[in-house]
Amino acid sequence: MAFKSRDKSTLDPGIHATYEFTSVCINTAIYLPWLVSKCLGNGVVFKRAVVEHVADAAPLHAVGTAHLVVNCTGLMARDLGGVEDKTVIPARGQVVVVRNHPGIMTTVSNSTSAKTDEMVYIMCRPSGGGTILGGCYQVGNWNASPDPDLAETIKKGCVALCPALTQGKGMEALSVIRHGVGFRPLRPQGVRLGTEHVRGIPVVHNYGHGGWGYQSSYGCAAAVASFVEKEVSITAKL
User: Would you say the pTM of this structure is higher than 0.90?
Assistant: First the structure.
């Protein structure tokens, strides 16, 4: 289905615009392990370690010392030695995960509330991933605990936007699985994609994607690959 705008005469009061388009909805609890399995199938070796400096990642290579490091540390780029990008800040998100209703198809809805840092969105994950009700975009907020008042606002807004969530029975009929809080790694001046040399080691940076990391992942990965290939080419010539 092509991207199109809905007829404004059909919208409920308070809704200024509605758009329809076909997209992808990812159940991240399934998608991320699938990515790991693809990496393992291609010979990638995973290691867990605590490093205080980005260059300290190089000796963790499975065979010897790596000639290059790719930095995808997200919000932790603030404190990682050799990077310490204090412009990276959290954009706090809070959601309520409820059980899928059989009558709700996979959809994404979005509406902005009177508060500039609050929004209403509904994402029905496939394969039993539950329905995500949101949310907020609170820049600079480090609170990792769910806000009960905001949770009620989220439920109320989502049911008002989509009464079919509870078959018209109101937000009290929602079957809540859990409450969640996450920090989007926001870099106000934009994503950092590029190469620099730290302690003599080429470091390719890829962080600061805010709330659209999944959407941009393949494009940014292609850009990182091009930086890596360029660096490898330079090293080979030397």
Answer: no
